[in-house]
Amino acid sequence: MKDILNVKNLSMKFDNKVIFKNVNFKLKEGSMTALLGPNGAGKTTLIRILMNLLDPTEGVFKFDKEIRLGYVPQFRNIDEDYPLSIKAFVGLNAPTIKTKRIKDHIKHELEETNLLEIQNTRMGKASGGQKQRAYLAQALLDNPNMIILDEATASLDPRAKEELMNLLKHLNEKHQMTVLFVTHDLPLAKKYMKEYLYLNHQTAEQGKMQDFKGDYE
Ligand SMILES: Nc1ncnc2c1ncn2[C@@H]1O[C@H](COP(=O)(O)OP(=O)(O)OP(=O)(O)O)[C@@H](O)[C@H]1O
């Protein structure tokens, strides 16, 4: 498998505070990587840099030119009276005029994320797992071949966590989706992820998930 991301000598400082320095790593196409590290190690900062939302202090990174990036945040701030249905919420990431092709695409992603049967449920009434899967469906509308998830299982119950992880596994195995998954949940990462990238002490270490020995919690 080819490398789809090459990060070289990446350093980040906020004011004079060094978050990480000289970070080097590569990700392979179709890899499933847990981005691990204690609070404040810079996981979200690294993701924001990779998504071009923040400039690193030093260093470079390069995605393969065929990469289409999707991003799934941790769901939050959806009030109980939020009016949109799950289907309408997912469709926010599609053109306003819903042609048949677009409607079919939305339906396909609702199906892919096990939301089709409850597509008319209001987002405000949906469970945490359903809301989180709606965010995933939204991201999938962009046809990404790499997806970054930032603590997407953090506030889910155990069953909803497993369901989301099984979806990621399916996307990885059936659609060769490359996955980068920020998490503090080591047991979950050990069960579903294949590789790890561990940010700690201002540096990054990479390896096979089954060999991860860090114990930072
Ligand atoms: N825009 C900013 N300006 C100044 N400091 C920042 C900024 N963004 C993040 N930081 C600091 O950078 C450090 C790394 O934050 P970051 O959110 O990347 O860590 P993290 O590994 O994602 O942590 P957590 O696991 O708690 O989410 C923290 O000390 C944070 O306070």
Layout of helices and strands:
Elements: E1 3-14, E2 17-28, E3 32-36, H1 43-50, E4 58-63, E5 69-72, H2 86-90, H3 100-112, H4 128-140, E6 146-150, H5 158-175, E7 178-182, H6 186-192, E8 195-200, E9 203-208
Parallel strand pairs: 3-7, 3-8, 5-6, 6-7
Antiparallel strand pairs: 1-2, 1-4, 8-9
Helix pairs in contact: 3-4, 4-5
Keywords: ATP-binding, Nucleotide-binding, Transport
Family: Belongs to the ABC transporter superfamily.
Domain ABC transporter: 5-217
Overall domain count: 2
Strand order of the largest sheet: 5-6-7-3-8-9
Level of helix content? Answer: 25-40%
Element order: H for helix, E for strand: EEEHEEHHHEHEHEE
What gap, in angstroms, lies between the N and C termini? Answer: 33 Å
Report the C-alpha radius of gyration, rounded.
18 Å
Q: What would you call the structural class?
A: alpha/beta
**List of distinct ligands in this structure:** adenosine-5'-triphosphate
Please state the average pLDDT score: 94
Supply the number of helical segments.
Answer: 6
CATH superfamily of the largest domain: P-loop containing nucleotide triphosphate hydrolases
